[in-house]
Design a protein that fits this description.
The protein is mainly α. It contains 3 helices and no strands.
């Protein structure tokens, strides 16, 4: 496995030097490689873009105050009285 030597992989995570030094690459390189492989080779990007669009629409509604609060009608009991 090739190990990149960029600023992000050499960032000193624990402030120690020498053999005790822990870098960003030591902690996250494998995970980033696996996420990248998934995203570029296996992910259903069309579906992910649709999910993003749906989430974005809901967020815009929240920001615009257009979503109604879903409250239980007055006078009904849900068994949580007194809480």
């Amino acid at each position: 496995m090739c190990r990149a030597s960029t600023a992000s992989t050499t960032l000193n995570f624990n402030g120690r030097d020498g053999a005790e030094r822990v870098t960003y690459g030591d902690v996250f390189l494998q995970a980033e490689q696996e996420y990248s492989r998934h995203n570029f080779e296996y992910a259903d990007t069309e579906m992910l873009f649709e999910q993003f669009k749906m989430a974005e629409q809901v967020c815009k509604k929240y920001l615009d105050g257009r979503l109604e609060e879903r409250r239980q009608p007055q006078g009904t009991s849900d068994g949580a009285a007194g809480l």
